[in-house]
Amino acid sequence: MINIALPKGRLGKKVYDMFAAAGYPCPSISDTNRKLIFENPESGIRYFWVKPSDVAIYVERGAADIGVAGKDILMEYTPEVYELLDLNIGKCRLSVAAKKGFRDNTDKTLRVATKFKNITQQYYRSHCRDIDIIKLNGSIELAPILNLSDVIVDIVETGTTLRENNLEVVETILPISARLIANKANFKFKSSRIEDICSHMKLQCSASSEGERTYD
Ligand SMILES: Nc1ncnc2c1ncn2[C@@H]1O[C@H](COP(=O)(O)OP(=O)(O)OP(=O)(O)O)[C@@H](O)[C@H]1O
Ligand SMILES: O=P(O)(O)OC[C@H]1O[C@H](OP(=O)(O)OP(=O)(O)O)[C@H](O)[C@@H]1O
User: Where is the ATP phosphoribosyltransferase catalytic domain (predicted)?
Assistant: First the structure.
């Protein structure tokens, strides 16, 4: 049996559709009821719906053999997993953004609101810039508007949230996409099965590429 952690939410359906098209469907799967585990005994595949930021934990600890997580999550939490494949979906960027016209041109400690504490710390350390991190869990764009922070470090996909709140990208830190990851020990025990899944998924990546997005 191969246990696969799927991210709930905006990535979930796209990711499952890729697995199904790659030859690993699970007819009973649904994201509209409260069931979390779905099994296809014929193909020996079991899917779990997991909170996106938790996928890497399930995989790292072996509760799932493989799973799909955004590069943002992998960079932030650096789980001990194998990153097998860039699925080329869930494309976005992690960016520094601020109110239109903001310039970081004083020596004052910069106040940065973000969900991504570790990436933010690393980024500003590499720029030798003193910062005060304000850890938020959502609606990050509110922080500079209400003067809770000077800038934010957050995900930008279409740019709509920034635009509708009169913010703009200052700098891009990291391009992001969804990655297929595997538990290190389970990969050894189940290598032929997992490699098989990986190569079938790879064919889907090239077949169903989202294409290049244009950003603001
Ligand atoms: N517009 C976007 N906003 C956030 N994440 C995005 C976006 N576009 C693509 N992604 C990718 O999708 C992944 C899952 O995002 P989603 O918003 O579904 O989860 P989340 O609500 O941020 O996760 P959690 O509930 O675990 O905090 C992100 O980790 C990122 O890699
Ligand atoms: O560039 P866009 O297409 O507008 O997407 C970016 C927005 O989407 C995410 O928020 P999410 O919808 O996950 O809500 P949140 O504020 O609760 O994190 C992200 O944190 C940005 O706010």
Answer: 51-202
Spacing, Cα 73 to ligand 1 middle (Å): 9
Q: Return the half-sphere exposure (C-beta side, CA atoms, 13 A cut-off) of residue 45.
A: 23
How many domains does the chain contain in total? 2
Q: Is 150 in the pocket of ligand 1 (CB under 6 A)?
A: no
Note whether 19 and 114 are same-domain residues.
no
**DSSP letter (8 states) at residue 142:** H
Q: Is the pLDDT of residue 212 over 50?
A: no
Choose the residue to mutate in 96, 114, 157 for probing ligand 2, maximizing ligand atoms within 8 Å of C-beta: 157
Whether the Cβ atoms of residue 112 and residue 131 lie closer than 8 Å to each other: yes
From 30-34, 109-113, 181-185, the region with the lowest mean pLDDT: 30-34
Q: Is 177 helix (H, G, I), strand (E, B) or coil?
A: coil
Report the half-sphere exposure of 203 (CA within 13 A, side-chain side): 10
Nearest CA to ligand 2 atom 13: 138
CATH number at residue 43: 3.40.190.10
Q: How much is the ipTM here?
A: 0.96
One domain for residues 57 and 73: yes
Most ligand 2 atoms within 8 A of CB, residue of 73, 136, 155, 165 to mutate: 155
At residue 133, does pLDDT exceed 70?
yes
The verdict on the CB of residue 144 being under 6 Å from ligand 1 is no
Parent domain of 33 = 2-90+177-207
